[in-house]
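Complex 559.
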Amino acid sequence: METERPTDFIREIIDEDLRLNKNKGRVATRFPPEPNGYLHIGHAKSICLNFGIAAQYNGTCNLRMDDTDPAGETMEYVESIINDVRWLGFDWEDRLFFASDYFERLYDFAVELIKKGKAYVCDLSPDEIREYRGTLTEPGRESPYRNRTVEENLDLFRRMRAGEFEDGSRVLRAKIDMASPNILMRDPVLYRIKRTPHYRTGKKWVIYPMYDFAHCLSDAIEGITHSICTLEFENNRPLYDWIINELIESEDKPKQIEFARLNLSYTVLSKRRLIELVEKGIVSGWDDPRMPTIAGMRRRGYTPRSIRTFCNKIGVAKNDNLVDISFLEACVRDDLNEIAPRVMCVMEPLKVIIDNYPEGKVEEIECANHPQDPSFGKRKVPFSRQLYIEKDDFSENPPKKYKRLSPDKEVRLRNAYIIKFSHLVRDESTGEIKEIHCTYDPTSKDGPPADGRKVEGVIHWVSATHAIPIEVRLYDRLFTIEDPASKGDDFIKYINPDSLKVLYPCYGEPSLKDAKPKDRYQFERIGYFCVDVKDSTSNKPVFNRIVSLKDTWAKLKVN
Ligand code: ATP
Ligand code: MG
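Predicted structure with magnesium ion bound:
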């Protein structure tokens, strides 16, 4: 794994805690997703942070399903989360936990709070509770049920659990301070009645703890030392501390630390919005390669290492900002540049006939699989009289500085010969160019031409008789504007209608016959591609474009 040791304000807090020998020198973190959707790149930031800190400090990081709200939670999501975190390269060993396993203990904690006179059963309706809560400028009012006796509260809470009351008719509330400037401290709800079956506990429970109650206590149960979460929980921290201080004796108490969530341009990172894209069929599923989900990025061909690098490089801060998606793409590109073997593939074919090349002759041309790394070895690519090149690598009336093939400019075929334009044949009905005829310089294969003339352009090609037809899926940004989340529920109006372009047939060199699902390649001069795991077949291989190519081989690049 990456050896870089980032520093940031969270690690500074941990360093200081260690210096003071807090938690007896232990560092324990957790990643606590709610299994109500697939993980996205924002979660990856949190995963890298929590597991990264644990690794750096010889500590532990738990994977905890934060599954205390039965609505929308499913086993499918649990499995996807497990799969995604593992794929990202992290290991929780035997520490996979479920907050729903703590329901009994959380109930006991609530009883304890009641016994201490610090919680009460309240019969106000949800609307009334809101009304009594007050506003930022006005204090709240105390609930008429606030001064129930401990006995009455214990009895009512037990009967809430036993299912004697309607959903929403009663709640358990903490007894804190209705005049607190922090509205979350105005007797927050700790338990509610909800007759929704839970994907793990079924109908066993009809009361469920609220996030603020369950989360901090789950942290305490697991011995978490640093409970790292996103900034929107900053106002919840006093409540986190209040509950912990009331119920946890140990001097080693978990501490909540907030950091800025990741926002990424041209996409949305909210489960609710991502679910909408899936349910409305705007994408093909959670793993649609355009989705900012881990599953989508995996299918598209992103490497786990590039995602980890991205997360480490953006770092953690205290202010929200919008990270440019091209930065993520650059991380992916850098990684693929090292690991992807090169092949040639023509996206939009134009037939080239080499008139002076013998009919029926085939040369096997040795090509390096990686320009910088000889350990990738070599492969043989057939060369013959009929080739395909890209349509836009030929121009009849070239603009100035055009370095590809044109009537008066020779070009080198990558790894092979220099060719020169002779004439072209048009489709009589459409006027389009059907094929072009060229001649080749037989002496030019292994180096610059003997007569010293300069040929600047290099283009890729495949042998038309040997190439295999493939489908190529070109992905672009999912949204047309930088910050679709800023449009609220209208975000969906800004979907990029051209976010997927399918090309067929494209022609790949014959070595691509051996490509297996998930294999990644660089199509020279085009970009990085990955064999689609779902739709690719041996009859019709399907390649997803992972990311386009930046100008990495400047000298060879032709425009
Ligand atoms: P959403 O807002 O998409 O519904 P969530 O925060 O409710 O996401 P959880 O399953 O509760 O989703 O998130 C698990 C953890 O991942 C939490 O600790 C949360 O703070 C963190 N997380 C979620 N989104 C981001 C993000 N965009 N950047 C960084 N961390 C995130
Ligand atoms: Mg959440």
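The pocket of adenosine-5'-triphosphate (ligand 1) is lined by residues 32-34, 42-43, 45-46, 66, 229-230, 261-262, 269-272 (CB under 6 Å).
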